[in-house]
Structure prediction request, 916 residues.
Amino acid sequence: MAQKPSVPRGTRDFSPAEMLRRNYIFDIIRRTFSIYGYLPLETPAMENLSTLLGKYGEEGDRLIFRILNSGDFLSGLEPSALAGADSASLASRFSEKGLRYDLTVPFARYVVQHRDEISFPFRRYQIQPVWRADKPQKGRYREFFQCDADVIGSDSLLNEFELIRIIDRVFSELKINVLINVNNRKILAGIAATAGAGDRITDITVAIDKLEKLGSEGVRQELLQRGITPDVIRRLDPFLSLRGSAEEKMTGLKREIAASQEGLKGISEMEELFSYLGMEPSQARVELDLSLARGLNYYTGTIIEVKAADMAIGSICGGGRYDDLTGIFGLPGVSGVGVSFGADRIYDVMLHLGLFPEQTGASTEALVINFGRDELPEQIKITAALREAGIATELFPDAVRLKKQFSYADAQHIPLVIIAGSEEIKASQATVRNMKTGKQTTVSLSALPEFISEAKNR
Amino acid sequence: MAQKPSVPRGTRDFSPAEMLRRNYIFDIIRRTFSIYGYLPLETPAMENLSTLLGKYGEEGDRLIFRILNSGDFLSGLEPSALAGADSASLASRFSEKGLRYDLTVPFARYVVQHRDEISFPFRRYQIQPVWRADKPQKGRYREFFQCDADVIGSDSLLNEFELIRIIDRVFSELKINVLINVNNRKILAGIAATAGAGDRITDITVAIDKLEKLGSEGVRQELLQRGITPDVIRRLDPFLSLRGSAEEKMTGLKREIAASQEGLKGISEMEELFSYLGMEPSQARVELDLSLARGLNYYTGTIIEVKAADMAIGSICGGGRYDDLTGIFGLPGVSGVGVSFGADRIYDVMLHLGLFPEQTGASTEALVINFGRDELPEQIKITAALREAGIATELFPDAVRLKKQFSYADAQHIPLVIIAGSEEIKASQATVRNMKTGKQTTVSLSALPEFISEAKNR
Prediction:
């Protein structure tokens, strides 16, 4: 026999059982986005390379999957151009399109392209796969799904507030306990400036970001290694030791970075955000985490990160405010803020903690046994009546041995089997077998749909 | 200003308004598949070229989008290999993966790869985009969606019957009047054999397929042009003139092709299928159309085609039985049957005939006016209460002029606007403005969610 076919490295099939569980997650996210007034958007899998390149840094450019031009892609190329070429320059001759790398850049491209049709503030959500030519490893795939909600064209911190409400609602519906950490890039800039190293914000925040892992002393070592002078490190000290509630931290901060206008602006933004959170408290704890420093390449204000409380798996959702996303496409001065849910990690958390409801494991609720030609008209009628009542039902297509039909129901986790042989049909009845308990109940044919609906909801 | 960015030729963005309409179609198709016991499956956008190539004919191979190997794809290639190469042979050195061209081949690959985990008969549905490097034109895209349901591992014609029931239910829920035409490849083979040209089945059926367009005389000319001898054409004559119901046609056919075992098998299959259709009649007319000859490369039994009755747009759904789909991947002898809904054409039909329900145009149901800081706590409360009641609600994020907030509601087709300024709040009331009629109603804050829910369902 031939070798079994397979999928490309880093990609996955989603079996029916996995799909049902994934849809459970996606449905809750989608419903929540929609309740908060976000509207669905989809963009093509392929984008022009001019849209994608230069948006994700050098490393990102390298990780974009490129699509070979169709037809005769060599036409117009001199043989000599081929002979001495390197991969990178040749790739740009062969290829004009690439696969979507994230949902943010296509969104920015969409907003600029359709700005005349859009009413701002524009709230959209987008749930689609993205592709990255990363080295595949456990939990890291070359095709994975992002679930993004962004609002563009409004500076208001009410947007941040509502995105945190969305996060809270999604995870509380999924029954995942989370910690929501927030910070503000302007505060980080204020800290760096106060310490006398405003130009070293990235090195400083990358080191501070490791506070939880390395402790204060470890962070000091890390800062030294990054060439931050002992003087600056000493001035950073008070920030590393700030403790307490968001309010307490901000009171301390205001004193320390009083000289930085930008830093004070960051604090006042966070105060406003926490005042909104006070008006409608969330289920999850929301903390001001001064060491939170993700996405500093593009975030300009609020930074948000969500971690599962009961499993160490890194961030399962994150986001922030970016002041000039569409500027790269020629539409400057439009502020946006968004969050992105990591569907794959959320899936792993739910599986690990056993949080999927049992019924997501099977979507077909009843199997009608096929007894063959003579009983078929009645079995078709039974099947039709159940479907009419909204019950996902199969009629076994072949009149094979009962044992085989029962094994099928078992393997497919179909909870109920309807047995209506000639004797039952004569009595206008059917026997319903609960595949889990083995219990059999005789039900009149007319009452069958109602009986199954009730059994299903129990 | 820079040039507006755009999407690659033949691809599309789906705006929120389009997404809501598309999801209306997808939801009905998905729900129907599920009620009939089909389970969701998804496969990766990329497949190995070894999976894709050679499955769609020479033309198909040419239309597959290929993905450039990541990293240094030139490594191991001699410069001399580059200099003299043509596009096709070079492509195979640079590229090991391609984008999914349809959903059927990935499904066959999945079944073979996972055959030890699958219980047969395996019913799956799959709704995903596919990509083809076709020349874009009106109604033909390089990225488009297919909605497939297939059952594999059962010969029973009950499967065909149920797929026709699915077609009938989907289009009746979408309110599209359709004609469902069926035929059987074995009958076509029987006709060709009876006419003495069994080896010319493709030429004969391609010509007969034009009966509706060209009439009997036109078909005779077409057959002549294809090199079919006048003798054979004369013997085809009785088939071209068969009229009447499926039963009448089959009675006539049985007489004409009595000598073809294969042809008689085809007729008996169709008789069985029509007997099932008699047990549970469909809303749409199901006809035996002897000129239906689609997919002859792979269909081996039943052939199904669906056309909109009220708009000339070609086939909007089609399918059939294939006896050896998984054979190409090393698992022979497994019969399958499936149908595929063409989402893009269905969308066009619905738009053209005005069949989308009005509410698919907007998903956000209420906008709460933002009066600024002082009233904000109350407005956050109102917004939260509406969302709690399942009403998709926006709180305008900025306290800008009322006029601007109303224009936004208008542009976004948000039907209801909630006005709760300081006066209203003092009286524990809000004013609800119906944006369509302009009618304003004063409602107590506690009754607001119920009022909006009722207004929404009216």
In short: Chain B touches chain A through 109 residues (CB under 8 Å). Residues 362-456 of chain B form a domain with the Rossmann fold fold (CATH 3.40.50.800). The longest strand of chain B covers residues 122-131.
